[in-house]
Write a structure and sequence with these properties.
Length: about 230
């Protein structure tokens, strides 16, 4: 827990006091940018997520939308998508989530040593995401309200430019631009004995390209161990 606090402090300190940097000419940036091999353009997914996503990986430059009503498990789904990349050594960030539940994040499999938290950016959430895109591989963001189309398009363009993955956690239909991948929670139920044992989440998966064919999957999230697994 101390490591998480220190990581968050170090980022917030940097965010508040780092001097502005001059923009490089676009042609110079293009020459300096390394050529990415096809496998380097993918960020790994663990089960059960790899069975849900076409290509079994997240592609750099993607925007992903997780649509969920309050209390239905949307945050767990969004964080679950990060576990494979986090365990592989990639940096992730969580923006606009007051209490992401670090114990639950650790149970899911995230490496908390590589997670940055910006819990309350308020109206500056888009700016915080834009700044983080220069230094992390994946970002989960919960906008505080409806996002304008122009702001969404700027973020999506920035994500593609930086080769990161943006996971937006929203109420249904509140993200104004098409996503590369969309996971909508359509139903949840708890399996119980004398206590809550596991939550079964039904996901409608859609998107663009290979993900354009809509499919439904059931994921147990969390199971008894706090992890995610494929449902029946």
């Amino acid at each position: 827990m101390a490591g998480v606090t220190a990581t968050r402090y170090s980022y917030e300190h940097m965010f508040a006091f780092s001097p502005s940097r001059p923009d490089l000419p676009a042609d110079l940036v293009a020459r300096l940018r390394p050529v990415s091999l096809s496998h380097a353009r993918r960020l790994p997914l663990e089960e059960p997520w790899s069975a849900l996503v076409p290509g079994a990986a997240l592609r750099r430059g993607w925007s992903v939308v997780v649509q969920s009503g309050s209390g239905l498990g949307g945050l767990s789904v969004a964080l679950g998508l990060l576990t494979g990349a986090s365990r592989a050594g990639n940096w992730v960030a969580v923006v606009g989530v007051d209490d992401p539940g670090v114990v639950a994040m650790a149970d899911l499999g995230l490496d908390l040593r590589r997670v940055l938290f910006v819990p309350r950016p308020r109206g500056a959430w888009a700016e915080a995401v834009g700044d983080l895109l220069g230094g992390v591989d994946l970002i989960v963001v919960r906008p505080p309200g409806r996002c304008s189309p122009s702001t969404a398009r700027r973020l999506v363009d920035r994500v593609r430019e930086r080769g990161a993955v943006l996971v937006v956690l929203t109420e249904e239909r509140s993200w104004p631009v098409p996503a590369d991948l969309s996971l909508a929670i359509t139903q949840t139920r708890w399996a119980t004995t004398s206590r809550l044992e596991a939550r079964y989440v039904t996901l409608r998966v859609s998107g663009r390209g290979r993900a354009s064919r809509v499919a439904e999957h059931v994921v147990v999230l969390p199971n008894r161990a706090g992890r995610a697994e494929a449902g029946d």
